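wait is this the right file?? whatever heres the structure
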């Protein structure tokens, strides 16, 4: 991972965090191609996006901090 990849990872994580806390409806995935019409519980969608965002941010920050 390069330094620019680490910065990109932090950016993607921030976008996922914004989506987690700005969205009001989350829908089930049908794989790599999109979403279905089935709505999932609000807390589950928010938790998934927030954890995914946190993971991207942590990976990017650790790489920058340790000098990868």
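ok assuming it is, sequence goes like this
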């Amino acid at each position: 991972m390069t330094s620019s990849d680490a910065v990109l990872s932090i950016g993607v994580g921030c976008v996922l965090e914004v989506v987690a806390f700005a969205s009001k409806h989350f829908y089930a995935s049908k794989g790599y191609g999109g979403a279905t019409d089935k709505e999932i519980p609000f807390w589950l969608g928010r938790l998934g996006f927030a954890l995914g965002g946190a993971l991207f941010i942590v990976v990017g920050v650790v790489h920058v901090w340790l000098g990868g």
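Residues 3-66 form one domain. so i think its the right one actually
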